[in-house]
Sequence to fold (565 residues):
Amino acid sequence: MSAIDKFPRFACPDWWGKLQRGETPIADIPLNEDKARRALAFFNRLRLPDVPGNPAMATACGEWFRDILVAFFASEDPETWQPIVWELLCMVPKKNSKSTYAAGLGLTALFMEEAPNRQMLLVGPSQNISQRCFDQAQGMVRLDPMLRDAFQVQDHLKSITRRKTGTALDVKTFDTSIVTGEIPVLTIIDEVHELGKKAKAQAVMQQIRGGGITKQRGKLLMITTQSDEPPAGVWRTELDKARKIRDGRGGPAPIMLPVLYEFPAEQQRNQDYWRDRRNWRLVLPNLGLSIDEQALVDDYENNGRVNRHAEQIWASQHLNIEIGVGLSAGWIGAQYWDAAAEAGLTLDALIARSEVAVMGIDGGGLDDLFGVSVIGRCAETGHWLHWARAWAHPDVLEERKEIAPRLQGFEQDGDLVLLDDQDVSGDVNGVAEIAARLIAAELLPEENAIGVDTTNLAAIQHALFGVGVTYEQLVTIGQDWRLSPAWWGMERMLKQKTFRHCGQPMMAWTVGNAKPEVKGSAMRITKEVAGKAKIDPLVATANSVMLMMRDPVAAKPAKFVYTGM
Fold:
């Protein structure tokens, strides 16, 4: 084991303690001090082009980013003298000057690179963001006569070239063609969370990382805020990886150094905690520099607290609260959803523990999800146990490209089945197989066992009858305001934790997508209001809740009682 590996490489077990002490939440790594001094000397002389007086980074930059800078450029294994940080992911809230600092880091890399005719990329997920990065970088160059002599700025190409080496820093908008045929020695990606919404982002990331296996190798810096939706696609993959590395679960020799400004999950779920402005400083390293505390408080009071949806966006962007963990907009049951998850609960466990079970089914056209829910009543506790699955036809991925990466992530979790064009009936056959399992376990009641909305009845009944479901067991459930008892009932049971579920990311997403409309004593949660954000598995859940509320009895009572482990 290398001398640097007292803990697993890049693990930072005291990251929360460091945040509370005002320190950078970064692992201790060995540095080449000469490289560190050289990088800092150049970076510190850069001046901010959009701040009155154009202050230098030496006084205008937070110490936290200098820690990132030297770790990224000067890491070195003391035994092999080789760099150990090849990738770095920094998640920091909005308005902490991350784009400006990233532009400065790009110029520093251009200055530090001595190899001739290399390519570096500074990539934004949209034209506006990439233009902002370029404006900051070229502004820094034009403020300093020495840098004007050292670098050539080409505005029309959004490119900055070091005259001595011919190596260029190209500022581009994220696209599948940005790295075709290129092996960049450095890639900086700003707002990487936005890539979670791009269907082919994973392929592009693979192209970028392709340079990492050549002799010259390539470095990758990702800097971002948290997403204003539940993390998905590339962003979910990278964030999960970074957290595992930080917590010492990232394998023996990771190459990504995580620097995550976020509250622990427990504090994110505690809304009283993160709403307390005294705690905001813990995740805002530039407070007092680029962030004025009173202005931030005023913005929250006047804009962030307008309604739940506004607060969701504000908290995700300014405090890095993860949607689906710390806050969900809309349906009040979403606030209690995560806390009602039960570790180890699966469909198999539900079947083993339940004295009776019912099913709910919901889906629309081929560009919708087809969802099924199973709720069992625990023989020991009486708690309702929930499990769900969904199916998606190829049309969904084509028509709803913005959620395609998210759906592909749910497939990897095992909660969603992506069908192909030759398997048009895969969804209804899959639902029938689940019904067959419940029949074999003698859990379905003789009547009102499977609830489905009228639009799906014709599509599903033939497959269900084929596995032994009777006409009496199949029932249509009124939709729209008629599901109000299910929504009200689930809210109360989730808060009481008598409704238990498997903690499936797919369900957390659909729960967060629910946008209620309350009229009098009725509540509507509909697909029309949710729009592109799907809720089909949640509506299937409401259908099964409507049946379980009738206090059903299994057609043939189970011969055993689950007594726990």
Remarks:
- The longest strand covers residues 354-363.
- The chain is about 40% helix and 15% strand.
- The chain has three domains: 15-261, 268-329, 335-548.
- Residues 558-565 have pLDDT under 50 and may be disordered.
